[in-house]
User: What shape does this take?
Amino acid sequence: MCKNVLIISSSLRKNSNSQMLADEFMHGVEEAGHNAEKISLEGKTINFCKGCLACLKTQECVINDDGRKIADKMQNADVIVFATPVYYYSVSGQLKTMLDRANPLFSSDYKFRDIYLLATAAENEPETVNGTVSALKGWVDCFEKATLKKTIFAGGVNDAGEIKGHPALQEAYETGKQI
Assistant: This one.
């Protein structure tokens, strides 16, 4: 069965390490014969959630910007992959804002079941990614049909492109092939 995989990359830096990890995941997905679309949050207008909760009735956000369009794509994806640099032991601010703006999906008939996290950080300790996983898991746990299937973490990468040769790239590619 061909799946629709949506990859959301939240780094705003050109040639970022998390972007490269997302590219490898996408390459694996495409090689396995699935449909893949990658959206970078760079250059997108995604305003903060107003907390009005109108979306729970209408299943559409009252804010008409790129966040609304991305949430629509999220709703129809079978698999969602989030790629983020680790900022202060959590997801990037732009990813957190996008997760908040996906609130209309909560009461919708969303398709996604499997969620993947790709994370990169300058620090290399395994626990560096724990807060990032916790932040995304808090979102995933609100969607009872969805599961955080796997986290791929590349630590010890700071400068843009420093991830080249890191084993996490191969892991991302192989995981993408297994979707």
About this structure: The radius of gyration is 15 Å. The chain has six helices and five strands.
